[in-house]
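Morning run. Coffee first, then this:
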Amino acid sequence: RLTNFPIPPFRGFIQKNPFYAGAILITPDGYPLGTLCAIDSRPKHLSQEQLDALRILAKQVVAQLELRLAYKKLQQSSEELAELNNSKDKFFSIISHDLKSPFNGILTLTEILKSDVENMDREQIADLAGLIYDSSNIAFKLVNNLLEWSMLETGKMKTKPENIDLNIFINNCILVIKDLAKNKNISLNLSGIGKNLIVWCDRNMLSSSLQNLLINAIKFTPQEGEIIVKTFELDNMIQIDIIDNGVGMTQQQLDKLFHINTIESNEGTAGEMGTGLGLILCKEFIEKNDGQIWVKSTIDQGTTFSFTIPIAVV
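And here it is:
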């Protein structure tokens, strides 16, 4: 649509009857964006050819804006595709390398057991059985993490929040992993957990996140170390800190956390191995429950993982 008429004087115009002609900029979906206008300090009248030219110019402006928008969307899609490809490559790298290693170990150990069992004493057989168990446990954890991660990525894992008594819940999580801490003489202490503190969260996702963080803290804490689980209220959220006095991390290591294309699996203080996916799953689970996770660390002093979850409206 075009407008071609005198309008009241604008500030800065000397003449009393300035000129204005404008073509409305309308997107293909029918949304008006503004106008392409011609303004003069003297009254004028445009010919039909000039009005047609203004209309064509307006369409060109809209077309250029649409092209810019399409280009921006294309760039965004390209970046997302690159990230997905990186994730896919890392995913298959984990399957081909990390998953192959424990199975190779299992096959080697069982081959030794099969061929030499008649020449072994009970202690040697027990040692081999322990190594086979450790390799099998690593493989199981990795497969489980890969399945959970793939379900998250494909949207097949749904969040089912419920009211959870945090005091009881954290104590139950600690009971599950207490033997791991006991094996390294690491003390597990609770701080600030009040009775009847109810949170609104998916039980399985919270359990997986908390246990992953506790196991990670045990892994990188030396013998006779200490881990503290601390909670406190923050507005309508509960913040949970898992604090250890372990080996700590460099800034370079911190920058690689929570990203599938940069994950690393480092040995713990007692040679423990991990899958590298645990922290990524923690981040996904916590964010799906409207929380956030972050970490602070200092080399040779320790690490603190913190995350938030909503307080239940009782």
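Residues 26 and 64 are 12 Å apart (CA to CA). Good start to the day.
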